[in-house]
Amino acid sequence: MRSAAFLIAALLGGALLLAPPPQASATDAEAAVTPESEINDLPPGPGRDAVYYTCRACHSDKQFTQQRLSRDEWDELLTAMVRENGMAEPEPWARTLMLNYLSTHFSDLPEDEWQGLPPGHGREEVFYLCAACHSLAIVKQQGLDQDGWAETLDWMVEEQGMPELETEERTAILEYLSTHYGP
Ligand code: HEC
Ligand code: HEC
Questions:
Q1: Global model pTM greater than 0.85
Q2: Mean of the pLDDT values across residues 31-39?
Q3: Position 34 confidence tier, pLDDT thresholds 50, 70, 90
Q4: Last residue within a domain, chosen from 105, 135, 168
Q5: What is the rounded CA–CA span in Å between residue 136 and residue 117?
Q6: Which of 105, 139, 163 is the last residue of a domain?
Q7: What is the best residue among 42, 71, 74, 85 to mutate for testing ligand 1's pocket, by most ligand atoms within 8 Å of CB?
C-alpha cells in the first residue's frame, strides 16, 4: 500500500508540474490542485493515504470531510466520481479501503443502526468488517479475552476468508472486542 501511495504521489507530483497556474482557471477541480491542506488534517486510520492521494488529485478534502453519508451513499459517490467526474476506476482493494475509511469517519449512521454495538474506538471497524460476512449476534454472544479474540481473528483470516488486517486496525478491533465482549 505504501508503494502504491508513493506511486500515486509521484504521479500527482508530475501533474502539479504540468498544471496551469491556478488563476488560469477557476473551476473547483483545478483550484484544488494547490495543496492547501495536509494529510494530517484527515483523521488517522486505514485507508487515509488512499483517500488523500486519490481524492485530493481533483479537489480539496473539504469537499468530502463535510459530508455525512451512509456506506451505500459513499459507494454511490465513488461510482459517480468515476462515471461523471473522471476519477480513475480504483483497484477493488483500494475501493474497499477508501469505502471503509469514508464510511467510518464521515458516517451518518444513527445510534440505533449499529446492531447494538456500544460506542467506542474500534466500533466502526468491527461493524463494517465483521458484519460483511455474518450477523454481529455471533460476535456479541462470545466472551473472550484479548488472546481469545486474537485467535478468533486469526481463524477468520486463515479459514474464513477475512482480509488480513493492518496492525492499527487489528489493535483497535482487539481492544474493542475484549473491552465490550470480554470473559
Ligand atoms: C478526477 C477528478 C476527481 C477525483 C479523483 C475525485 N473527484 Fe470528487 N468531484 C470531482 C468533480 C469535478 C466534482 C464536482 C465539483 C463541483 O461540483 O463543484 C466532485 C465533487 C465531489 C463531491 C461533492 C459531490 C456532491 O454531489 O455534492 C464529493 C463529496 C466528492 N467529489 C468526493 C470525492 C471523493 C471522496 C473522492 C476520492 C475517493 C473524489 N471525490 C475524487 C472530481 C473528482
Ligand atoms: C470473510 C467472511 C468473514 C469475516 C469478514 C468475518 N467472519 Fe467470522 N465467521 C465467518 C464464517 C464463515 C463463520 C462460521 C465458521 C464456522 O462456524 O465454521 C464465522 C464465525 C465466527 C464466529 C463464531 C465462532 C463460533 O465459535 O461459533 C465468531 C465469534 C466470529 N466469526 C467473529 C468474527 C469477527 C469478530 C469478525 C470481524 C473482526 C469476523 N468474524 C469477520 C466468516 C467471516
A1: no
A2: 58
A3: very low
A4: 105
A5: 9
A6: 105
A7: 85
